Amino acid sequence: MSSILSSTRTLLLCICILVCTGAGKKWTDDRNKKQDPEEKTSPAKKLSSPFEEDVIVSSDSVSSTVPFSRAGNLIIIKAKVDTIEGNFILDTGAPGMILNSTYFRDYKAEDVETNERTGGITGAVDALLPTRIKEFSFGGIQWHKLYADRISLGHIENIKGTRILGLLGMQLFRRFEMVIDFQNNLLHFRLISKTEKKSGNTAAIFDRKEALEMDIIMRSNKVLTQGKIGNRKLMFIIDTGAESNVIDARLPGFVLDSVTIHSTTKLNGTGGSKTDALYGEMRNFKIGTLFIHSMPVLVTNLEKMSFVYEQNIDGMLGFDFLSRHQIGFNFVTRKMYIWK
Hints:
- By secondary structure, the chain is mostly beta strands.
- The chain folds into two domains: 18-22 and 51-203, Beta Barrel (Cathepsin D, subunit A, domain 1); 212-339, Cathepsin D, subunit A, domain 1 (Beta Barrel), CATH 2.40.70.10.
- 9% of the residues lie in helices and 45% in strands.
- The chain is built from six helices and 26 strands.
- The strands form four sheets. Strands 18-19-24-20-23-22 form a six-stranded mixed β-barrel.
C-alpha cells in the first residue's frame, strides 16, 4: 500500500488523445450554465473532423469475444493494421484511431483540411500528418479505409515496457455494444445492424435484467455521463485509457471535501509532459442508482482538458471505476449497464 501512496508515484493517467475542432476559438468556463445534454447534429452539417465519419465495418459473426492483457491499468488488445500486428490500447477517451508514429511514419499523409487541436490534461502534443489505413482488424471484426492520426507514443512504451502500436478510440465503436469483464480479462463486442439502429430495438450480449441501466451522452466521439457527489451533479468522461479516476481541482470546496488526500503525484500526459496532482479517496459517489462509498481518485486542474474539449469536464471515470463490476455500453442506444 505504501508504494501506491508514495509521493514519487508516477501515473500514466490520460492516454486519451483529445482531438477537437476550432483551434483559436474563444472558450469560456460556463460550468454553471444550463447545457443541452445531447449534441444536435443536422444531416446537412459539414463534418468538422474525419473522426466524425461513419466507418466501414464488418464482422464475421453477430458477436465477438476478445481476450485482453493489461499494462498497469490499461487494456491491451492484439490487433492488426494492414500487415502490421501488435498491441493496441483500448481508449474511449480518444476520438478514433491513433497510430504510433514510430511504426507508421512511412504511411502516406492524408490530405485533409482540419483545424484540429490535440492534447490532454497536460496540454498539447505534437503530431505527424494524419493517414488512412486499408484495413484494421481484431476478433473477427474488420474496419476499412480508416482515418488515423499519428503521434509518438514512445513515452508510454518506456513507462509500460511494452511495444504499443496505437490507441483505439470511440470512432471505431459507435455502432457497437461493448462489455468489459476485468475479472476474466475479456471484451465482448456486438455489431448493431442498421435495421436494429433504425428500430431502436437492439439485442443484448448478456441478460440486462440483473444490470443497473443508466444513460450516457455521446458528444463528438466522447462518452459522458452524469454522477453526483453529495447533491452536486457532475459531468464525467468515461475513459478506458485513464488509469485512475479524476476530479477537477476547481470544483467547489464542499465537493472536494469528499476527498481524503493521501499523497501527491505526477501525471504523464500524452505528449510526455507532466503535471501535479493529489491522490486520495473519493467518498459518497453516486451514478444512477449505484452508490459507491469510496474509491481512489486524483485531483488536478482540468482547465486544459476542458479547453481542448470546448466544454466543461468535472472529472473522468477510469480504471478504478470501470473495474469494480462487469460493465457494458450500447453506443447506439446510449445506455450503460453495470452488473453488480
